[in-house]
């Protein structure tokens, strides 16, 4: 998943998925001396002063940053000169540099190092940030200037990148109520303020349940678990004051392998229930009523603008354009997905029956028996595969792919040369292999810990622009792998390795940017996952497998026979993967199309899944009460379908590489990949960019083939 923290002046869901953290207690520094506002110094064009970051500084820094940003905006809005692109739009692109810098620290403290102290500050800041954004999007003088430049461009178009920035800026202001009557503007701003607090509360409720539910095992309950997993669980338990026990935390990185390999069925049920009940425990941290209120406010807000529902408003500037097109794609894939689940469940039940287990497959059994089916059908043991998937080697593999496709070289930065916010974080310098010039820095934060939100994501501390001189890129990838015991290798599953490559794809998208204007580093939500999903495909290329998949103890390369099994099983369990995802995407869309009046969220989820004929043996990937993509902000609201929309592009583009003379490392096609799909970022229409790469639009048939589904299902 990608996260953008661009200025807030035209990004309505900025700060959407952030929670808070804390450092050492100190007296608050005077605003004038607040290090979080200061220009970055040091090597590589200046870097964040993470070693000086204090939670006690963040509130004052945010408030001062907003104040300075508004001064910049007022200067633009109140100037006497006639509005032009240079004195209005370009100056808006320059505005708020201090606040931009503070957001870097804000994002790290919230997503990577959260504590109750920081969450309290976040709750205080959320409504103030909403008011700040409204003061910009509802600034009548500012919008009058933007509109004048926009209307002039209809008579005399600007150069392509300037026109794109102008169009995006105008559309964003229009979509956020710039042309409303005064009383409606006031209500619009009030709704945004209320929503901002709800989003913060939603995030913190989920984080509470992720931190608060831990399952402790004793030695008699470790059946089926790997040695490495057991050692890591023991280390976590010790850190939590439970010496001699083994901790299964309420995170996917801990839950998933436990459900796959543990022979303790009742404990599997307990771990499964903890994970899928986040935000839905009927206590003060329950999110159901909060979601209902969010949905009501979202509907009311867009109706002020004349839209029927939130989805209609949200999708107008996406590739799908409207909810009908998004639903059409999901409904084309859904029947094949649930049919495949039925086949998978029959296979699993047969294995259970043959073993004399006398059970009926339940959701907490799916991963466990799917693993047994994989072994029976393909003689493939995912734990055996894991012995060849070392995090360090996978990191090297990603750097190799970046070198082959993008001509980048990754060199470790000496410890202490660049400040980091946690000892787990490592830094690499990225250079162009042809010229030796610096492209930027890559920060990697791979391990789960207290206060770090779950999942995997990518972000930038600084994005490429050439508006006022070329700026290099500071990009970060974040994962939640279980940290191994000292001296042990970090071994990950094939799925986790795929996600690792996925997030690195976002980083390469950041590094390859060739845009002039900061706004063009943003993206269209149902397109921005495409580049990262596409990069996943290089994990299974022969070059990566043969060079980087080596046994963590012996150093021996992965056996050819095991590789063959992996490739033969490439479409295995696609029913599960596709259905759990699509269920979440369909609920996201349908709940925003539904009338939110007196909505019972839990009942809606349950009844909608029944109407869809959702298989009872598996859950949604993200149940509604903890669906942070959608309810901790607005980045993915009615847009979670975007992953499968992007995956149509991914499957189609993958076929182009498979058919190329040089395969996935074909030089000519790789150059087109960078030129049209990565470097432009949001400087051109995504559909046009894809046509320039492929010579035509993407076809859904490629997706169906890729997942092993019948192509005829439409």
Automatic annotation (TrEMBL):
<feature type="domain" description="Oligopeptidase A N-terminal">
    <location>
        <begin position="63"/>
        <end position="185"/>
    </location>
</feature>
<keyword id="KW-0479">Metal-binding</keyword>
<dbReference type="InterPro" id="IPR024077">
    <property type="entry name" value="Neurolysin/TOP_dom2"/>
</dbReference>
<keyword id="KW-0614">Plasmid</keyword>
<dbReference type="GO" id="GO:0046872">
    <property type="term" value="F:metal ion binding"/>
</dbReference>
<keyword id="KW-0732">Signal</keyword>
<protein>
    <recommendedName>
        <fullName>oligopeptidase A</fullName>
        <ecNumber>3.4.24.70</ecNumber>
    </recommendedName>
</protein>
<dbReference type="InterPro" id="IPR034005">
    <property type="entry name" value="M3A_DCP"/>
</dbReference>
<comment type="similarity">
    <text>Belongs to the peptidase M3 family.</text>
</comment>
<dbReference type="InterPro" id="IPR045090">
    <property type="entry name" value="Pept_M3A_M3B"/>
</dbReference>
<dbReference type="InterPro" id="IPR001567">
    <property type="entry name" value="Pept_M3A_M3B_dom"/>
</dbReference>
<dbReference type="Pfam" id="PF01432">
    <property type="entry name" value="Peptidase_M3"/>
</dbReference>
<feature type="domain" description="Peptidase M3A/M3B catalytic">
    <location>
        <begin position="259"/>
        <end position="707"/>
    </location>
</feature>
<keyword id="KW-0862">Zinc</keyword>
<dbReference type="GO" id="GO:0004222">
    <property type="term" value="F:metalloendopeptidase activity"/>
</dbReference>
<dbReference type="InterPro" id="IPR024079">
    <property type="entry name" value="MetalloPept_cat_dom_sf"/>
</dbReference>
<dbReference type="InterPro" id="IPR045666">
    <property type="entry name" value="OpdA_N"/>
</dbReference>
<dbReference type="Pfam" id="PF19310">
    <property type="entry name" value="TOP_N"/>
</dbReference>
<keyword id="KW-0378">Hydrolase</keyword>
<dbReference type="GO" id="GO:0005829">
    <property type="term" value="C:cytosol"/>
</dbReference>
<dbReference type="InterPro" id="IPR024080">
    <property type="entry name" value="Neurolysin/TOP_N"/>
</dbReference>
<dbReference type="GO" id="GO:0006508">
    <property type="term" value="P:proteolysis"/>
</dbReference>
<keyword id="KW-0645">Protease</keyword>
<keyword id="KW-0482">Metalloprotease</keyword>
<dbReference type="GO" id="GO:0004180">
    <property type="term" value="F:carboxypeptidase activity"/>
</dbReference>
<feature type="signal peptide">
    <location>
        <begin position="1"/>
        <end position="21"/>
    </location>
</feature>
